[in-house]
Specification:
The protein has helices at about 5-10, 15, 20-35, 60-65, 70-80, 95-105, 115-125, 180, 200-205, 205-210, 230-240, 275-285, and strands spanning about 40-45, 50, 85-90, 105-110, 135, 140, 145-150, 170-175, 190, 215-220, 245-250, 255, 265-270, 290, 290-294. By secondary structure, the protein is α/β, with parallel strands linked by helices. The protein has 2 domains: about 1-65, no CATH class; about 70-285, Rossmann fold, CATH 3.40.50. Strands 5-4-3-9-10-13-11-12 form an 8-stranded mixed beta sheet, sandwiched between helices. It has a 3-stranded mixed beta sheet with strand order 6-8-7. Helix 5 (about 70-80) packs across helix 12 (about 275-285).
């Protein structure tokens, strides 16, 4: 039990609205995960479920607080519709895929390069009967087709192994550009969480990102230095594609231009045609996570 986890619970918007359930889930998971290595099925959002194994550090945030990444996950829930395509890059065990596919009913392309993690993604797709909604790809993404080494056994921290990095546990994975995978299909939201490899993913998706259509991209910043990438240049590239950085207030259903400090760290929401998405989030149905309506 870490001080960081306790602080996460104390500050989480959903956990603060249902403290008894949040802390019950937290303490019961601490006990259960120490007594058994078996996975547990948890209620997720509405009627969706999530299969979580001990030592899945990223997924347990959903167990404790309903939605681990509250603002980003709420935006996905409110902005997507059943006719849309959601692309989950760095899908891990499928938390975002489950939100989009099971809670909303959207179609998904879910990409996870690490074979062991990919197996857990398939489990959650099957658990939620999403086989007809979700296309799962056990590959990586990059600027060009090829093959790359990925670390393995690091849970949510698995990443492309850089040329200067020694990695004892790794897997070789096929890599393809996103434009090639989509083949002209147009997603409504793309989530990119690839531990610093975002610049290469974007370089392989320029055709998709250049289109003058409503599109939102959730992308992690802060780790590109590992590969010598200039994240300020990547940010400007997104602006040049026609995107605007945005903030989202889930309970108020308000999407707005970002007015915070000029920090390129953590998840950043980019939106093209903000008025379109503002109408979307305001007209979305209510969802329930941790027994709290959002």
């Amino acid at each position: 039990m870490s001080a960081r986890t306790i602080r996460f619970l104390m500050e989480h918007p959903l956990a603060k609205r249902n403290k008894p359930l949040a802390y019950y889930r937290f303490f019961s998971w601490q006990v259960r995960s120490r007594l058994s290595s078996s996975p547990v099925v948890y209620d997720f959002v509405n009627n969706s479920q999530l299969l979580v194994y001990p030592r899945m550090t990223g997924a347990t945030g959903n167990v404790y607080a309903g939605l681990h990444e509250f603002y980003d996950m709420s935006f996905v829930l409110h902005a997507l519709r059943s006719e849309d395509l959601f692309v989950d890059i760095g899908a891990n065990i499928g938390s975002y895929t489950t939100l989009a596919g099971a809670a909303v009913g959207a179609n998904c392309i879910s990409i996870e390069p690490i074979p062991a993690t990919f197996a857990h993604l398939l489990e959650n797709v099957e658990l939620n009967n999403l086989q007809h909604k979700v296309e799962c790809l056990n590959i990586g993404l990059g600027k060009e087709p090829g093959e790359l080494k990925f670390s393995s056994g690091e849970d949510t921290m698995n990443h492309v192994v850089s040329s200067e990095e020694f990695c004892e546990k790794f897997v070789s994975v096929e890599v393809r550009p996103l434009d090639n995978i989509l083949g002209g299909k147009q997603p409504t939201i793309i989530k990119i969480d690839v531990e610093g490899w975002e610049e290469s993913v974007i370089s392989g998706a320029e055709t998709t990102l250049s289109k003058a259509v409503p599109l939102a991209v959730l992308m992690e910043f802060g780790l590109g230095e590992r590969y010598g990438f200039n994240e300020r240049a990547l940010y400007q590239k997104m602006i040049d594609f026609g995107f605007e950085r945005a903030s989202y207030a889930p309970f108020a259903r308000r999407l707005m231009p970002y007015q915070g400090k000029d920090i390129l760290e953590g998840n950043i929401l980019f939106v093209k045609q903000m008025d379109f998405f503002q109408v979307r989030v305001q007209s979305a149905p209510k969802y329930k996570a941790l027994n709290v309506s959002i």
